[in-house]
């Protein structure tokens, strides 16, 4: 992995724009600004850029820390268009099938093309044929509306509806509703809680614009953007934590780092958790009370347990399809478990040495972050639970493991400072989506927010869009 960090002697005392955090939103925002001639500094506490979109290496195996694939990387979709604008080229492998869905009572492969998926569902659920056609038309219209800058009639129509309510309005077949709900783990809230708009943004993005894996791993995605940022003249300080944000009369003046540097700028972008931004970095007495109380009362999304396995080349993993494995047929999903399992070496064999293989598992976590007293005990319990589940799918797997690592919500918090290790910023519920999420603007005229805590929401495609929007807001100011 390259060392992108600035030489201390090159650090300026003043920039046009300072971006706090080198998550994907911060990187995209900074790169657009640098491309348009702004002097930009990105400050990142981790030693590598990318936030959740990073990888780590153990004994020759390259594991993706969190992100497994990216939506909308085709040339007409959001990520594809953004990379083109920035003149960035990344080699992606499109996933085909896009996914697979497993319940104890049935399984379905989700094809890479949305029309093939609709055909498959119509064949499987013939009594819902007409409704399926209406639903996908409506879902696609709603998806398009999420890109409009005005309050589109479709957004108004669905703004108070959960995804479950939307499905109930269209369908009666319970198995079909389970199928169309199975991928809710990609957005973090179950169908009876997740906003119909949020689920639509995530699902149609994958179904219509495809799911892609960046060859070489997700770090490659973040590194390539970082390199372009530097090529456009941007400065990045890694292993550098913003410790205080200095304010004066509703204006942000500067930032101090844990190493004691004090740097000023005309404009600031926070790509980090708003609770940290407004309650720790900024003196909260200088922040508008109603804004502070909004931030204080918002609820974080779920976090996950992650298992990373490096395996020898002697076990056949062909039967292990990438996708969601639900452990019960309960459509309510309250308290039910699922595992998202993938074999990234099936897509990109270069991630492991000598034809060896990788399994990556994301497990839903029933325990509340604040209720966990002993994280080591939790980690061992979840490790055992996950390996036992894998053993049912691939007998004898335990005897083929060469490398094992795991991450808990605490680990995700430690690496990113996202509150409670939140995977997706604020939970994507009806009360926290669209106009109810935090806007890009803040009570400080020269402070903007980019990333999954703000609009349009979580996931790499959405945060790319968020970083791009904020850059445009600054450039058009
Ligand atoms: C387990 C898991 C799996 C996921 N899988 C997918 C997937 O397959 N596809 C997908 O599209 N999305 C996925 N997501 C969601 C996606 O990863 C996030 O929504 C997205 O990466 C968030 O990007 P971001 O730019 O908002 O910020 P983050 O990635 O949260 O980055 C914030 C950055 O700010 C830095 N920072 C924090 N505090 C400071 C400070 N004081 N000073 C300096 N720097 C600081 C952090 O170190 C971090 O680098 C997944 C998330 C998780 C947790």
UniProtKB/TrEMBL annotation:
Gene3D superfamilies per the UniProt record, alphabetical: 3.90.660.50, FAD/NAD(P)-binding domain
Pfam families named in the record: Amino_oxidase (PF01593)
Chain segments annotated as transmembrane: 15-34
Alphabetic keyword roster: FAD, Flavoprotein, Membrane, NAD, NADP, Signal, Transmembrane, Transmembrane helix
Molecular function per GO: oxidoreductase activity
SUPFAM superfamilies linked: FAD/NAD(P)-binding domain
Domain called Amine oxidase: residue spans: 24-475
Record protein name field: Putative phytoene dehydrogenase
């Amino acid at each position: 992995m390259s060392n992108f960090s600035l030489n201390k002697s090159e650090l300026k005392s003043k920039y046009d724009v300072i971006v706090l955090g080198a998550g994907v939103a911060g990187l995209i925002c900074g790169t657009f600004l640098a491309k348009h001639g702004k002097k930009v500094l990105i400050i990142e506490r981790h030693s590598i850029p990318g936030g959740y979109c990073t990888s780590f290496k153990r004994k020759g195996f390259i594991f993706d820390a969190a992100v497994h694939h990216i939506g909308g990387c085709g040339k007409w979709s959001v990520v594809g268009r953004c990379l083109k604008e920035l003149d960035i080229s990344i080699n992606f492998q499109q996933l085909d099938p896009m996914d697979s869905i497993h319940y104890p009572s049935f399984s379905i492969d989700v094809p890479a093309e949305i029309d093939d998926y609709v055909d498959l569902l119509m064949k499987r659920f013939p009594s819902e044929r007409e409704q399926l056609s209406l639903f996908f038309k409506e879902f696609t219209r709603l998806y398009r509306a999420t890109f409009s800058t005005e309050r589109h009639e479709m957004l108004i129509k669905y703004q108070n509806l959960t995804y479950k309510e939307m499905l109930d309005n269209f369908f009666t077949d319970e198995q079909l509703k389970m199928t169309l709900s199975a991928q809710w783990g990609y957005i973090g809230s179950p169908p009876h809680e997740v906003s119909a708009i949020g689920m639509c943004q995530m699902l149609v993005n994958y179904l219509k614009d495809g799911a892609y894996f960046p060859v070489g791993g997700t770090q490659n995605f973040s590194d390539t953007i970082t390199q372009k940022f530097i090529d456009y003249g941007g400065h990045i300080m890694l292993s550098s934590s913003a410790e205080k944000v200095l304010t004066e009369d509703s204006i942000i003046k500067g930032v101090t780092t844990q190493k004691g540097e004090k740097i000023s700028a005309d404009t600031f972008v926070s790509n980090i958790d708003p609770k940290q931004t407004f309650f720790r970095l900024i003196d909260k007495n200088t922040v508008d009370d109603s804004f502070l109380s909004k931030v204080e009362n918002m609820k974080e999304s779920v976090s996950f347990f992650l298992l990373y396995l490096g395996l020898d080349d002697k076990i056949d993993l062909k039967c292990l399809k990438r996708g969601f494995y639900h452990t019960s047929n309960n459509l309510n999903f309250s308290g039910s478990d699922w595992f998202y399992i993938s074999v990234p070496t099936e897509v990109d064999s270069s991630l492991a040495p000598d034809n060896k293989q990788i399994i990556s598992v994301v497990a839903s976590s029933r325990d509340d972050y604040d209720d966990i007293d002993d994280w080591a005990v939790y980690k061992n319990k979840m490790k055992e639970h996950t390996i036992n589940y894998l053993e049912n799918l691939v007998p004898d797997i335990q005897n083929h493991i060469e490398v094992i690592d795991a991450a808990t919500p605490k680990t995700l918090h430690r690496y990113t400072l996202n509150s409670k290790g939140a995977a997706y910023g604020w939970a994507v519920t009806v009360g926290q989506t669209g106009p109810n999420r935090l806007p890009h603007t803040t009570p400080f005229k020269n402070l903007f927010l980019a990333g999954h805590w703000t609009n349009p929401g979580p996931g790499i495609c959405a945060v790319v869009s968020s970083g791009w929007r904020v850059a445009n807001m600054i450039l058009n100011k």
